[in-house]
């Protein structure tokens, strides 16, 4: 008498059972290798964004961490609170690219495999790094463009 194996039809032949187990183990090993590759490619991702006026350029990693920050010449003319707002807005724009880039890596390496896992990963990334609100970006730009001249006697607001 044979018992179901969980792999389809019951197997009576021990050699056939061993072959099925070996095939199943190989499929798992192949899948693990594809996921390792996705992880390595994702860790290597770097996403860059620049402020509209070129004052700020940032690069973030796939985990959202800041990897590089550069200031253009325009940054010297901005009051520090405005520059800080531009840095934050630019970081958010770079981070908002993460989910799309990870999705591209997953599609390239996994094809249509594991849609549920992919959805969980990408939904998590989109929740952590949403598209910046146009209002936030516009408010930062408006603050930069509309700020009154700083008090020339205020030493804390001197240009660097």
UniProtKB/TrEMBL annotation:
Which Pfam families has this protein been placed in? YbaB_DNA_bd
Region labeled Disordered — which residues? 125-160
Please give the SUPFAM superfamilies that the UniProt record associates with this protein.
Answer: YbaB-like
Q: Which InterPro entries match?
A: YbaB-like_sf, YbaB/EbfC
Is DNA-binding one of the keywords UniProt gives this record? yes
User: Mind listing the UniProt keywords for this protein, alphabetically?
Assistant: DNA-binding
Q: In the record, what terms sit under GO molecular function?
A: DNA binding
Per UniProt, the ranges with Acidic residues bias are 151-160
Q: What is this protein called?
A: YbaB/EbfC DNA-binding family protein
